[in-house]
């Protein structure tokens, strides 16, 4: 029986939608056009897309429909971040002329109740009943291949012409002495908390670790953030990572890089002692009440009996070619289970191109997708395409245009001046190859760059696009203006002066 903690009306409502206790699996069709294994975004898009095109599809989920995004990822984490941001902004009230205070009382139980309520209210979008109503056969249970075109689930056999494996991933549990005995949280359990940990250690300085470290610190936890690498957010540009590190430290988070957690010991009913070793050989111990693991993701491939289907995989995920096809020509894999671009929006896009390739002789390649990435800290850090370092590694000459948020009028009046926007273009052209935005609303703003890159529109198009004033998005138009000014060579300037004199 699938369950969620705590047991309350909101979690019961969630379960009634995404894993109904009285659900009866349908009698399988003679053969399905497509069977999707995994009821997260990637599997849902594959199954619904097939049904919408008039095909017969099945969706298999062993746990909760909606996957990580609804239940343990995007939705609950952003609800928590929103509450933490509201607390932080209230504390900063003096800047806006009213009495802010560090002594604001946070009702953590109420914060988490709101999270569960909002998650439940969204869950009908991913409900078994809704999918069935849209023509998808929903099978709840654990899927297991029994042949190259057959899957067994809950005692029934489903035959397919095409299959999409979209079983996602889970938090990696590092082999650390004493960790299992001391206990820990992952993204699948942290949102079940009802009491705020007084002292929290976050292991891992990627997007999940940074977001939740900032949220829990703003809600009142004493947070220590440990990153094994030399900086936080290794996938973003160094200056963005450095800016965020300074912000987190200013907000009271004890950030350590080049730090390896070697051993954990339980010293009381809840208290744990962490033994840390730094790259320079120094050692330190800290005591905490809770540990959150955010040190990477592991693909969910266990139990699928992939060998029976002839599907190859490695510890990094299921092996696919550029068209998302596995070693079994009938079977595709999309989303986190392939170990690339592990984002909800990427999973959505992957399944769309997999459907085209599977049924319509498509040749859509994963490498052609323009996939933005956003870390939802405050400020947000959004990125798309190549960084300057990646461009250099590829031997690509670039021109870089940069604008500080401190020069943006809307950012100034909102008090959001920490950050910048940066765009890289192929040297001597307006072709955008990448960009980074660090700003309060960077995740919204990066869509403009994604649009330009996807449709291969030049940066100059932004210079002739009218933006509302005042908005933070104007910073992108400023970058386009920089490009336009770069075209004003001495020869062009002399020609313009001559025209003006003649006129």
Structure notes:
The mean pLDDT is 95. By secondary structure, this protein is α/β, with parallel strands linked by helices. Helix content is 34%, strand content 23%. The strands form six sheets. Strands 1, 2, 3, 4, 5, 6 and 18 form a seven-stranded mixed sheet that branches. α1 packs parallel to α5, α2 runs parallel beside α11 and α4 packs across α5.
Summarize the structure in short.
The chain has helices at residues 9-18, 41-52, 67-71, 74-91, 108-122, 128-133, 179-182, 207-218, 238-250, 306-309, 344-359, 388-393, 409-414, 442-454, 460-463, 474-486, 490-502, and strands at residues 32-37, 57-61, 136-140, 143-147, 150-153, 156-165, 169-171, 199-203, 222-226, 254-256, 259-266, 272-278, 283-288, 290-293, 297-299, 313-314, 317-318, 331-333, 373-375, 380-385, 398-404, 420-426, 432-439. It is α/β, with parallel strands linked by helices and 503 residues long.
């Amino acid at each position: 029986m699938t369950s969620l903690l705590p047991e309350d009306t909101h979690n019961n409502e969630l379960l009634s939608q995404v894993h109904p206790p009285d659900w009866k699996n349908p009698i399988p069709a003679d053969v399905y056009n497509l069977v999707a294994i995994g009821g997260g975004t990637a599997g849902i898009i594959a199954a619904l897309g097939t049904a919408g095109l008039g095909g017969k599809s099945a969706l298999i989920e062993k746990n909760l429909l909606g996957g990580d995004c609804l239940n343990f990822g995007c939705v609950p984490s952003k609800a928590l971040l929103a509450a933490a941001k509201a607390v932080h902004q209230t504390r900063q009230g003096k800047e806006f002329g009213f009495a802010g205070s560090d002594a604001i009382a946070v009702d953590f139980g109420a914060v988490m109740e709101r999270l569960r309520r909002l998650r439940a209210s969204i869950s009908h979008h991913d409900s078994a009943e809704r999918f069935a109503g849209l023509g998808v056969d929903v099978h709840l249970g654990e899927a297991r291949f029994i042949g190259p075109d057959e899957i067994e689930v809950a005692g029934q056999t489903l035959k397919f012409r095409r299959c999409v494996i979209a079983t996602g991933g889970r938090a990696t549990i590092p082999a650390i002495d004493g960790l299992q005995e001391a206990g820990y949280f992952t993204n699948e359990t942290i949102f079940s908390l009802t009491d705020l940990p007084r002292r929290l250690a976050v292991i891992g300085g990627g997007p999940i670790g940074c977001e939740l470290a900032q949220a829990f610190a703003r809600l009142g936890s004493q947070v220590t953030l440990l990153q094994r690498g030399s900086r936080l957010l290794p996938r973003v540009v160094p200056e963005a990572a450095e800016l965020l590190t300074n912000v987190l430290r200013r907000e009271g988070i004890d950030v350590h890089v080049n730090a390896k957690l070697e051993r954990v010991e339980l010293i009381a009913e809840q208290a744990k002692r962490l033994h840390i070793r730094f790259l320079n050989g120094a050692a330190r111990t800290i005591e905490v009440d809770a540990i959150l693991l955010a040190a990477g993701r592991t693909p969910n491939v266990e139990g699928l009996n992939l060998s029976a289907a002839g599907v190859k995989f490695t510890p990094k995920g299921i092996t696919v070619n550029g068209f998302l096809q596995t070693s079994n020509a009938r079977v595709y894999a999309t989303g986190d289970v392939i170990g690339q671009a592990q984002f909800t929006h990427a999973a959505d896009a992957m399944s769309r191109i997999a459907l085209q390739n599977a049924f319509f002789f498509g040749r859509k390649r994963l490498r052609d997708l323009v996939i933005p990435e956003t870390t939802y800290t405050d400020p947000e850090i959004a990125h798309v395409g190549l960084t300057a370092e990646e461009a250099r590694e590829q031997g690509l000459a670039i021109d870089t245009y940069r604008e500080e948020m401190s020069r943006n009028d809307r950012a100034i009046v909102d008090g959001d001046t920490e950050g910048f926007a940066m765009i890289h273009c192929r040297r001597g052209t307006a072709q955008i190859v990448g960009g980074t935005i660090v700003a309060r609303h960077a995740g919204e703003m990066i869509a403009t760059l994604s649009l330009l890159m996807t449709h291969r529109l030049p940066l100059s198009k932004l210079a002739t696009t009218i933006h509302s004033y005042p908005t933070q998005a104007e910073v992108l138009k400023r970058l386009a203006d920089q490009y336009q000014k770069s075209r004003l060579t001495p020869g062009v300037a002399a020609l313009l002066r001559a025209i003006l004199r003649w006129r």
